[in-house]
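User: I'm writing a tutorial on reading structure tokens. Could you give me a worked example: one chain, its sequence, then its tokens, then a sentence or two explaining what the tokens reveal?
Assistant: Sure. Here is the example chain.
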Amino acid sequence: MRHINLPIFIPHLGCPNDCVFCNQRKISGTMCFNKSSVRNEIDSFLKTVDTENTEVQLAFFGGSFTGIDREDMLYLLGIAKEYIDKGLIGSVRLSTRPDYIDGEILDILETHGVKTVELGIQSMSDKVLSACKRGHNADTSRRACRMIKERGFELIGQMMTALPCSTAEDEYNTALELVSLGIDGARIYPTMVFSGTVLEEMYKQGSYLPPDLDALTERTAYVFSVFARMQIPVIRIGLQASDGLGDSDGIVAGCYEAAMGEMVISRYYMNRMLPLLNSMKDEIKGKDLIIHCAKGEISKIIGHKQTNKMKILNEYNVKNIKILEKDDIMLYNMVIDYN
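And here are its predicted structure tokens:
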């Protein structure tokens, strides 16, 4: 069945902590929340969906859901359970912080149809978490991940690249540890400098300098390579385009690109191809290069704005490039041949 999320945004609710990078109201594109409107939002959404052939998952995003007022949390989960019991919604997913996970919370989630927990881990480096004023350490994240998996929930790990004090190796090691903790999927968010945050002040004072677009793409592709190698689905790379992100009180620095996901995956493919192409450099000169890939990956191998294709044509002097899909090639793999 087709899967679709029905998003309900609860910006910054449930989180008393102010991480240096965080302005949830701008990130979610939502400036306020009225819980009494949730039923109308669900009903309006369901009118547009063929529920018999679609798995609908109600998703509470934008804030730390398990940290909001307990009465409000139970109210929202109660509404979700009503729709689940009617067969209109399959399950619930939510996003929260590692320090808002415990046995009692998981008991509540389990009895209200929650299937997926997205955990905002950001980094597994205590140095980075401290610099970001995250309010917890890496052990808190490890504990939360283990508890969620032991209870049978699907776990999505959310992490960031280019945070203050973070290095490419810190980020790579964070991805490795998330895999070892059994995540079922990942989101990767390159750091953006939002107005009204401590990070903006750090940027203005010169204590935080965001990487340029090329460096940011390379670092994020380095992280992506961990998940690709282990066949962990990456649900999203970069912030989703929404109203307000590009205006003067939105992102002030950090190379926001709506196509960041495509750029990162394209860079990953190019990095995979370079050793192969270098080993064949003399043989492929003047020849037709043929690249076989998994279904749906042709545009990513060509590269954002054809960057990969042009790089190969210009640097390896091949006559032409053909990219063909093959059923027997696994995702993120390829076979390179020449005529």
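What the tokens reveal: The longest strand covers residues 114-122. The chain has two domains: 2-258, 273-338.
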